[in-house]
Sequence to fold (370 residues):
Amino acid sequence: MANRSDTQRIGIFTGGGIAPGINRVIFGAAAELKKKGHDVIGIPDGWAGMLEVRRDIMQLSTLNRWELSKLFRGGGTKLGSSRTKIDESQYETVRAASREYGLDGVIAVGGDDTLGQAARLYEKKILNIIGVPKTIDNDVGGTDMTFGFHSAVEEAAKFIDRMSTDAESMRRVAAVELMGRDAGHVTIQAAYAGGAHITLIPEYPIDVSRLLPRIQEIYAARRHVIIAIAEGYEHLQPPVLDHQEEVDAFGNVRKEGAAKSLLRIIREKTGLPTQEQIAGYHVRNGPPLAHDGNFAAELGAAAGWLAHERMYGRMVALRDGSITAIPLSDVRGGRLVQEDEYDQETMMKRDLPPAFVRDMQILTNSAPGA
Ligand code: F6P
Fold:
């Protein structure tokens, strides 16, 4: 690919909920663009920063690699974020702000709401955009993994493990409620690592008539139970609808109350002592694990490379262990836990990796005399 020599001015912004590693994406992109002689600015507060010319932009090109690396560490995003919806009536406002900033292109770090918006603005030729998928939920279609997911699972697993200390000592049924609005990826992985006895995820409801006896059976054997339940598990009646009035600009309802619903049913139907613990934002607020942070920085550098090559309209992604780029228009939300990942009988993540089972089935089917 011919190297473009003319300098570009590239803006970076971060939208949606935070995830460990966002700052490392910014570092990776800014370092790569600076290395190639481009001008880089940090735009505050996600899409809100593209609706008006903000004075609090960050001049990243003035920082050398080490200053960038030191500045963009730790949890959260130094640029700030928001869940700002841009509708068609605001497209010209975004175009004007981009012109005012003097931007040739934008790197947008966000989940399917942020990137879905990016795809539409690119298609309408409002902005040249590169997307970097971001969510602890790991539910962005088009990429095998999102940065921050592993770090969130680590924190959630520790949270569950800590709660089992309390539940075991106090002889209680504990329910730990974990983030994961629509998909249970964080919950099944953290439950498996953290030693939960039962895992409940939005994708696969477990009938209470099976769930309660299972809880009683475990309690009888171990005198405590640890249940990991995703905040998006909305299959319990009557539901405790905490925070249902909180709806963001994309129509996402704030979910909290699954654990409360579950424990109320357990107390009423079994009389067992219970305790609730909401892990909530804790699992996504920390710094990235080293590997996760390096993965995030590589995604950022890849996004910087794509902007340098003017290969806009793409999202960086992890595919079969390698970082690649796919069309922004291919970004989808809602990559859910697959049926062969979760055992509805044991109510846990399956021990055997699904890909192994599928490969072995192919092998055994193809074996002579199979
Ligand atoms: O989308 C990621 C996420 O962390 C979800 O797991 C969670 O339900 C949601 O964001 C919380 O949204 P907000 O950050 O707007 O409270």
